[in-house]
Amino acid sequence: MSEVLYLKLNQNTEVHERDVFLGQLGSIWCRDKAIESKCKALKVINIQANKKERYVLSVMDLIKQMEKLDNRVEINNIGETDCIIDYQPNLKPSPVWDWLKAAAVCIVAFFGAAFAIMTFNNDGDVSNVFGHLYYQVMGVQAGGPTILEFTYSIGLPLGIIVFFNHFSKAALSKDPTPIEVQMRTYETDVNTTLIQNASREESGIDVS
């Protein structure tokens, strides 16, 4: 009598050990707990190179290995058809290097955002618009910076904070921020490309 086993693979799994087991790649459930335990402990790959690398595994190959392990098992895949193993070796952390990278990102983001805001203000001729608006309301020409520039300077960063919905550890709501959405979209696109490239390499098809 066969035992039904449900397999739900994650699209991407980060591992730090060279021996990778099936239980690390997703969720496994079977009424027969002995079969479930054996499948979770099934070694699916042994990574030889001690460097960062990504490996793509097909669920078909995993099913073959599981059936060899126990021919009574009937596998029902309810997750991904291909999964990515992202191997990250356990390297000695370098706090100084991490701080330098964070500082470099902050500097680039700061000056890049400042340049974008300045070019936008210049293209939209914001100072001239403020001058006309001040004259229409007050009836006199502005002799320098006015309340409009002051409120604009305060409203701009406040608007950015509200839009991105995240400042330090405080969030205005539990919704994902636009940056988080774009990061997840980018991550999904990268995973899809890696899987498609692996399939093309196996079939001998080149994107060119």
Automatic annotation (TrEMBL):
Pfam families (UniProt xref): SporV_AA
UniProt keyword list: Membrane, Transmembrane, Transmembrane helix
InterPro entries: SporV_AA, SporV_AA_N_sf
Span of domain Stage V sporulation protein AA: 3-88
Record field: transmembrane: 99-120, 140-164
Protein name: Stage V sporulation protein AA
Native source species: Lientehia hominis
High-level lineage: Bacteria, Bacillati, Bacillota, Clostridia, Lachnospirales
